[in-house]
Input
Amino acid sequence: MTSLASNDSATVLVADDDATVRELFAHWLRGEGCRVIQAENGKAALEKVLTQRVDLALVDVLMPCRSGFAVCRAIKSRPETRLIPVVLVTGLQNSEDRIQGIECGADDFINKPADKQELLARVRSLLRLKQFTDELENAETVLCSLALGIEAKDPYTQGHCERLSQYAVALAELLGLPEEQKVALRRAGVVHDIGKVHVPDSILTKPGPLTPQERRIMEDHPVAGEKICAPLKSFRLVLPIIRHHHERMDGSGYPDGLPGQQIPVTARILATVDVYDALTTNRPYRKALAPEQALGVMKEEVQRGWWDAALTEEFQRLVCSPAGSAGGL
Output
């Protein structure tokens, strides 16, 4: 039988108020190379998930302090823990309990009394999926680190990525966009200029105007960024933002010269907040504008046909609202 965890790397939480059950599951899992931590009730289980590394949780449904349903719901509601697989262990047989478990976000169920081979097979499968998820997260981390490294080359763009993520998500929330598009905008705010890794530093940090050849090199960075991020399937909705965030409504942007509604709305959102951030931060050729001045310039550029008029108006509402001012927009 293949070991569940190579190099004793997988940590499994076993949460059950019955010490005999906990020790039995722990014995089975240790025999397969897992590190096991135990919790005697729902409250202790959640505390361990929040304070220790856990790769998978086996959680009894009927526990004191917090039920297994409540523990599962809490784990799945937190961004830092929601990808941890949760297996509910239950003696309950009716379909209503299964439905409740599914609604809480449970990844699988095991009936009591548990069969050793079934338990290990289910744990093995979920740990493989968790490993793939971890590798994906690591890849995203590398891309974000690379993007922030590019940003750090230019002192005038310090904090630019973080601000764009914040602005873009805030505008998307105001517009009522779906959660998946808000996630894409948060990611795109960080990695939208990652293609600049192919642009020489002499061009990136040049204080004066670019030559036509230098501009062509610079304008290739959205396509390069899209290619860098394309292997990540989780970036499916991010790719159009990376490629098209320099397009303009009149078709004069790059790299594809898309006009109007052909530009994805998420790319138009990022373009809007990108312009605002550029105008409100110091540049080698001018000082930062006040928010009111920046919005005035953006309105002028809307009249030229560059930016989405409706999005610019909504963004102005956001910036000028008490919440926007308090949040640093």
In short: The mean pLDDT is 89. The longest helix spans residues 116-152. DSSP finds 15 helices and five strands in the chain. The beta strands are 11-15, 35-39, 56-60, 86-90, 108-111.
